[in-house]
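Sharing a chain and its predicted structure for anyone who wants a worked example. Both blocks are below, sequence first, tokens second.
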Amino acid sequence: MLSPADLMATARAEAGLDDFGDDSFRDGLERLCRSLNEEAKLNDVGKMALPQLMGKLLTNRLKIEDWYRRHPEIDDEQIVAPLIGLGLPRTGSTALSCLLAEDPNARSLLVWEAGEPAPPPATVEGPDPRIAATEFSMSMQHELAPRLASLVPMAPNGPEECQDLMALTFKSHYFLAFAHIPSYADWFLATDLTATYEYERRALKLLQWRAPRRPWRLKCPTHLLFLPALDRAFPDARFVMTHRDPTDVMVSVADVFAEVQGMFADEIDLSYLGPLNVEHWSLGMRRALEFRDAGNDHRFFDLDFHAVQRDPINEVRRLYEWLGEPMTDDFEAGMRRWWAANAEKREHNVHPTAEEFGLDLDAVRPLFADYVARAAAWTAERSS
């Protein structure tokens, strides 16, 4: 049985530290433990891996707080006007984040940094051992779930979503992909993520400390659900939103959940994962529309999935014109190299049917009808 007290005691012993910072993580940790204990049907891998993951998150908090204790000036760091990518999953946001990561004048959150933010990268001399550790972890993951590499292409030095930093308060969408935890899923939709985004900001300050100042490029579909809380932590943020027909993505994202969950459980309820994702993302889009309509529409740049597939360089160029930032020759060359190198990894997966995931796409369409109409107008306006 997972116990918050035991997990915290183990983390303290391993790190040799005892200050987790504020208590914003405790409610999520307790609810996640309870849901995993009562609802998840973990296999032997899951029973070993998920407690290790939760322990690592706690250890990360201990290390972050220790760096702040020893160097309180870290809190003076400024996170200025980050560009935050969002939109439904499977709308090309990962490819876009990889393209943006080629900009030498900007900074992306990298996979190895997100997994272990401390120590600050600029304080490490020579090759950072976290990179090799991440490579090994990813290779083990791909052995357990071979399709995952093609469903979600990642590299240790590539850009990562904000999920790992959000998970430092145990409020993150990715827990839902790891296990069947419906009570946690329901709670997550209704909870306040203000403290979560404040702690993400705290981690980003640590990551950029003593490094050359460059604007952040961040990304996470989950932000759709919690934009007012995100805005409180990053009030000068600008947003790039990717768009695609929701009926084209619901089965794909449910398939990703199933592939991840298959590493940690032997029985996967596909008929639950389909409606779960429809519920979360239709609500997320309604909340996003409300946020844009509340005086924030001017902070968004909209990109159509198919337009990016046809001409990614031109679409990024239009984005940078809107940002008022230069697109350098080195940046463009890096994007062209990345796009050519990854051409074979795009859109070649065969997914289970909508019916296998308990979905009737004719019933799904009305849930996104307002969004689809608005997205068509947004992307037409931006391309004109």
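Comments welcome. The beta strands are 83-87, 107-108, 216-219, 238-243, 300-304.
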